[in-house]
Amino acid sequence: MNKQSGIHYLRDPKQAASSKPVPAEVTRIRDTVVAGLGDLLQGAFDAVDDSLFELANNARSNNEQNRYFEAMREIRIKRKGVERQFQTSVAGLFADPPRTGQTQGETPAYSTSADTLSLVGDEDLEEQVALNAMIGKARAHFQGPLLQLQARFSQVYPDASDEAPVNPMAPEHLCGAFIEAIHALEIQIRERLILLKQFDRYVVSNLGMLLDEANRILIQAGIIPNFRYHGKSGQQAEKKRTEASTAASQSTAERPGTGGAAGGEEASPVFEQIRQMLAMQRANAGIPARSSNTQIRVVGHAELASLLSAIPLADSYSPDGDLSEGEPVTVDLRAIVEQLLARTESEDGRKPALNEVDEDLINLVSMLFEFILDDYNLSAPVQVLISRLQIPILKVVIRDKSFFSQASHPARKLLNSLARAGIGWSKSDEKAKDKLYSQIHETVQRILNEFDGDISLFDSLNREFEQFLERENRKASLVEQRTRESERGRIKSQQAQQTVDTILRKKLARHRLPEVVRDLLVNGWSRFMFLAYLRDDVEHRWQESVKVVDDLIWCLHPHNGDEERDQWVRVVPGLLKTLRAGLEEVSYNSSRLDETMAQLKHELAEAFRTNAVAETVQESPEEAAETGEEGELPGAQKSAVERQQELEDAAIAEFVTQIDSIEIGDWVEFRLVNGASFRCKLSAIIEEADSFVFVNRMGLKVIEKTRLELAHEMRRGRLTLLEQGALIDRALDAVVGSLRSKTA
């Protein structure tokens, strides 16, 4: 790949190595980041070496194996240089940080458009797509720390501004430094994509700890210790945002004994970010702060929790019926709360209203469930069941805001467990007979019936559900293991039979042999060859079994020379002994084996005496075309087929890359032509047969496809890869991304 490829490098190597004075506050961060990234990169290179070695071991041809070994050798030789170049480029980012001219959340510098795609080669485009995906994922996952770092770095560097902020640790800059460093590697696109994948897995995915450390160092230096988001300059907008922030602080401070957070908990950083963006939306819409309106009475946190506890959860969902009946419906939580507030009376005649914190909590829960109920990765029945938990979860977050910041929160863990367990559930499954569905249904039902504000209920339910899953998964794992072993054995048996049949067909097609010999080879010796193929990795008898066929055919040929006739005399006794032993091993015609061997001896003796038993058969052009050994027809047909195959491969290349990214244990959904669908998990990839085996959640095989067949299914829209990440984490990321796009 070169600089005309469409991938834009950060700077020339000479420029990256420049030693521009670094602000004192940044020197410590630079040294920490360069050392940390160096350690992470070593892990990435070790993983690349392991991946290439495994691919070479499983290669289906010598050329493919040599390709992987050559790539491994190239990377090993130049690895230290790449590591040094990467660390030098990263250090250069701190000396002369690029001006992004954009805020976190806008389109990265590596984005592509329809105009630029046509200028990029296929291989470069694949690399650019992988790079964009890596950068986008990192920016979404670390958006909070990145936003804070950008604001703090822009304060440190004197020539930075709001219009041109700086952040040396932005993912696009670090990824660009790596692309620049691996430019010297002479490897093909597939190996380069493996390198990028491991860089993403070992380096980019672990940026969080380095970002947090950088923020901590800058906070210790007194650089924006209390971070607050300030958007683009503009006096009127700035005034509105200041008013909104002040009002939010006042409304929080008005609640005695809370420390500025609901339920006595520390404020969640994620929730605080969301609150700031919601406050900006209110300010931009001209909505006045509640605390400045004397006509309303702000309802306290404890009063709201008490009002919510009066809502009867189970009555609204027919506890005696099936909770998954019907479609998932988003509950208007704001309307429910407004109805509750309308019932409260105020002695001074003021209208009751929520404070901004509780209002933001209600809005956030509503947005979370909007994502959950629109999440295709959840199976429909489980999605409906989880939709019944909107009011209970609202009650939880009003009491305990750590739901948003702690992945170990009992309610959050339970929701994630329910979603993870239900990913393999299909619409076609029979709910009444399914233990998993019954357990999920019972868990939701108990929350609706028993939750009274005590969050420990979620903890006990989650423990019970995890124990149930452990038992079910143990059973499914045993079944899946047997399925996997059975499939591997079946596929190897198919390969063995096809190989034996092909070899015998080709060898027997060239010669006209006595019927007794043909029958012995096709119906008897073929069984021994089959077993030898299956056991070859232990007994190493496969080549010997093929040589017996060649020797038998040779012995039935005319031999006039003295040397050949002497060799015939030496070969035949051992050949007959080997044939008898092999046929006895496979129990071929055991009642007449002596008679068969006597007939074979007679045919061999006749051949030796008359030199005319076996005759070479002149192949017709059609037969030659089948074997591919004579004539011009096979070449012409192959050329046409190859041209068609090249067009087809080009059309599905993108989808083949996606199929190669699927790992054992990943879930997918297949849609049939009749509109039905089913979900299954990848259980095994049998490389020697190019076979992907999928099982259901009980471990039973449901479908088997080749790599190209899967790519075609994906191209037709009949195959969907399902995300398996934690449900609430994905929902929070989606909510933050949506709000950020609205406030950008």
UniProtKB/TrEMBL annotation:
Composition skew (Low complexity), residue ranges: 244-256
Residue stretches in coiled coil: none
Cited InterPro entries: DUF1631
Biased composition (Acidic residues): 620-632
Renumbered residue ranges of the record's region Disordered: 1-23, 234-265, 615-640
Domain of life of the organism encoding this protein: Bacteria
Pfam families: DUF1631
Protein's name in the database: Thymidine phosphorylase
